[in-house]
Amino acid sequence: MQSRTGTCKWRASLKRSKILHMALMGTSDPSGEDEASQEKPFVLRALQIALVVSLYWVTSISMVFLNKYLLDSPSLQLDTPIFVTFYQCLVTALLCKGLSTLATCWPGAVDFPTLHLDLRVARSILPLSVVFIGMITFNNLCLKYVGVAFYNVGRSLTTVFNVLLSYLLLKQTTSFYALLTCGTIIGGFWLGVDQEGAEGTLSWTGTVFGVLASLCVSLNAIYTKKVLPAVDGSIWRLTFYNNVNACILFLPLLLLLGELRALHHFPLLTSAHFWGMMTLGGLFGFAIGYVTGLQIKFTSPLTHNVSGTAKACAQTVLAVLYYEDTKSFLWWASNMMVLGGSFAYTWVRGWEMKTQEDPNPKESEKSTMEV
Length: 371
Description:
It holds the Pfam family TPT. This is GDP-fucose transporter 1 isoform a. InterPro entries: EmrE-like, Sugar_P_trans_dom, TPT_transporter. One of its GO terms (molecular function) is GDP-fucose transmembrane transporter activity. Keywords: Membrane, Transmembrane, Transmembrane helix. The protein is an all-alpha fold. It has a domain of 246 residues. Helix content is 78%, strand content 0%. The chain has 15 helices and no strands. Helix 3 runs antiparallel to helix 10.
């Protein structure tokens, strides 16, 4: 009896360790992959992937530029980053509830899970919601204080934190090649900070917020995997509870930081254009979760990381062109180091996973002959 209990505990511990490892490494369970996509013609699959990747790029880049406008536009002069983040969470929660209602009324037309606010579930997700608030708040604060061109470098340490947390929480060692790619990312980050300082555009406040955002992104992946069973594995239910919790937790912050008072004196508070842009930002915040999941579904988590790296490169170039900035060779080199290191880490992790999943053919033949 004791042996059976010990075996159950060992299996549960192993399952938790596997979940944390998947979260930190950005991998997925191979058993959950959609095999039906393999049956589609190659041309159709290629077109679907191209469309999904393009949709992800357009949504993500548009959201960054729109948030920069809302957070730091001279024409708005709105110094309420917490309220901007709160409103986007509110729009996302309302959209989730609205789609859930439509799915209930017209089950054949809209495919969306049924959402009912359960306080017990909301409490169980609260630790993730705190990390989620830190992630989106620090992301927006970083974007407020740094330029869009430097934004990618400013919050480029997520991969490094993934490796660090995998060691601290799982005692999981990382290969030399993976550590080498992390060193390249860190070098690119410091070179970028140095070059921003040399050009007189460095914001240490924004840089610190970027580092904190990177840490929260890594923690968010861990806690997401841990609390998914509380919402029956539904990402949309998790999104709903996360944003409802965030809206509630943001309210005291709005009071303490005096942002409600600042809003009261904001001259464009009754402007339809202002609220239209705010609502559009909320729509993009909702859409990015959908298109991210869609890109992972039609490709893979590793391909999603590669696409995100390429998107960051395009976003940086667009920002430099749009704002008519002039950057030095070393500044561009820092970006290439960050992007190259991120891409190399993704490639190394993919190669290591493939090596682990596909044993040496000679070893397989040997074991078969011995049997």
